Automatic annotation (TrEMBL):
GO BP term, pick one: proteolysis
Protein name as it appears in the record: Peptide hydrolase
Chief subcellular location: secreted
UniProt xrefs under Gene3D superfamilies: 3.50.30.30, Zn peptidases
A GO molecular-function annotation: metalloexopeptidase activity
Essential cofactor(s): Zn(2+)
Length: 502
């Protein structure tokens, strides 16, 4: 085996061997310098290519995601600097072909994940649910045998779909309560009517037709089967294994598009920092994670914590070795804000475990040192950090925004367009390599490097997590009930396709 110094003499970048005396201890300043836009964009293009070769997406259960996972593992393996594991887990895959027309016109509808197939094409009169469809009383006897139209809101889609079935509806069409298409998940297999989502505009058109007795035709054909998925976990061979920094993003996309910002940007940002880190020695071990099946409900990250905390293996002591978790899910939104998770709870009165305040403060300093603005981002428990918060691990991370509209105040701070979504392509076919904010992408990836450089040396200011699984606080339970009753993806605001639960 050649040594690092020989590689260096030949002008070739080579990983720092753990015992090499010449290799410097990592510093934030040095690590940040090694994060280059061209490397980020090359990585993004790779993910785009995987999606293009596999039907336009990198969703769990498909070839685009499998190619992503294999490539990430290979890239990390070939550095020689990491112990790389592809951790398998089996989850129920669910997808469908859907079709809907009413009064002779075709309307765009989206499948609600885990919903059942329809018995062929069901043609029946439309009827509106009373109120918002969250109680049995919202479904009068006349619903029986009809296609019931229900407004989104107040309770999970699952509740509406169960209520529709219990009332004997032939199918359920849930329409959005804000602009945009509506798809999502029923959270788990259950006794539902065939259920689809549609836009507010279509919903209102359908409601207007009900008075004149319009009939609808609904077709849903689903595939549901167990499929194996993988987390990719790469840990530095060197460093103190009792004091570990974990950071990650999710490797899968939704079905609707290639997911190059969500979460190709986080994946590639993290990978790029992982490659840069190979030039240094670390004092604390650093574990890079690429979570699978996030868009199906953060399945990979929750599986990982269960495999660690004693539920499926490991012990509470294994969890306590993780000193901090950093999450990067969407860091290059085209109309971005520079969002930092509100670890100290100062903005949203929902803080992370002790030490999350330090993590937030350290991220803030990175931007402030460059004279750049930042805004706090709520821990909605709708990205992979949720599993870490639930296990009491101090957490933080970056988020540049999804479908929520940019405020005038944010436009003042960051530029971009007020009144336009932070990522108009969120969970859409347009989430491509063409639609990344390069400046935010580079800056945030350098910010990842900054924090990695810091915690690879010291966890000062971050107390060790209690070596017991954290009981859900009342506040956490309230948020989980609000945001996370089923399997949910997401971010600082209600999520779009393939992931929302209510
Ligand atoms: Zn995401």
């Amino acid at each position: 085996m050649r040594t690092a110094s020989l590689f260096a003499a030949a002008g070739v970048i080579a990983p720092a061997l753990c015992n090499s005396k010449r290799t410097p201890i990592v510093s934030s300043e040095q690590l940040v310098k090694l994060v280059k836009l061209e490397d980020l964009l090359a990585g993004s293009q790779k993910l785009q290519d995987f999606a293009d070769a596999h039907g336009g997406n990198r969703a769990f259960g498909g070839g685009g995601h499998n190619a992503t996972v294999d490539w990430l593992a290979e890239e990390l393996e070939k550095t020689g600097y990491y112990d790389v594991v592809k951790q398998p887990f089996v989850e129920l895959f669910s997808a469908a072909t859907v079709d809907f027309s009413a009064g002779g016109a075709d309307y765009k509808v989206e499948y609600m994940t885990y919903g059942p197939s329809s018995p062929g094409t069901v043609t029946a009169p439309l009827i509106a649910a009373n109120n918002i469809g969250c109680t049995a009383a919202d479904f009068p006897a006349e619903v029986t045998g009809k296609l019931v139209v229900i407004k989104r809101g107040e309770c999970p889609f699952q509740t509406k779909a169960l209520n529709a079935k219990a009332a004997g509806a032939a199918g359920a069409i849930i329409y959005n309560n804000i602009a945009g298409a509506l798809s999502g998940t029923l959270g788990a297999v259950g006794d539902y009517a065939p259920t689809v989502g549609t836009s507010l505009e279509v919903g209102e058109t359908l409601l207007a037709g009900i008075a004149s007795g319009v009939e609808g035709s609904l077709f849903v054909e689903t595939i549901q089967e167990n499929r194996t998925n993988y987390n990719v976990i790469a840990e530095t061979k060197g460093g103190d294994k009792n004091n570990v920094l974990v950071l990650g993003g999710h490797s899968d996309s939704v079905f609707a598009g290639p997911g190059i910002n969500d979460d190709g940007s986080g994946s590639i940002g993290v990978l790029t920092v992982a490659k840069a880190l190979t030039q240094f020695k670390v004092k604390n071990a650093v574990r890079f994670a690429f979570w699978g099946a996030e868009e199906f409900g953060k399945l990979g990250s929750f599986y990982y914590l269960k495999s660690l905390n004693g539920t499926l293996g490991g012990s509470a002591a294994e969890v306590a070795k993780i000193r901090a978790y950093l999450n990067f899910d969407m860091i290059a939104s085209p109309n971005y804000v520079l969002g930092i998770y509100d670890g100290d709870g100062s903005a949203f009165n929902f803080s992370g475990p002790a030490g999350s305040n330090t993590i937030e403060r350290d991220f803030e300093e990175f931007y402030e040192n460059r004279g750049l603005p930042h805004v706090p981002s709520l821990f909605t428990l709708r990205s992979d950090y949720a599993a870490f918060l639930e296990n009491g691990i101090p957490s933080g991370g970056l988020f540049t925004g999804a479908e929520e509209l940019k405020t005038a105040e944010e436009a003042q701070l960051f530029g971009g367009e007020a009144g336009v979504a932070l990522d108009a392509n969120y969970h859409q076919p347009g989430d491509t390599v063409e639609n990344l904010a390069h400046d935010a992408y580079l800056l945030n990836s350098q910010s990842i490097a900054n924090s990695v450089g810091k915690y690879a040396v010291s966890f000062e200011g971050i107390p060790r997590a209690n070596a017991t699984i954290r009981k859900r606080s009342a506040e956490m339970s309230r948020l989980l009930a609000r945001f996370d009753t089923g399997h949910a993806h997401s971010h600082g605001a209600p999520c779009g396709a393939g992931s929302v639960v209510m």
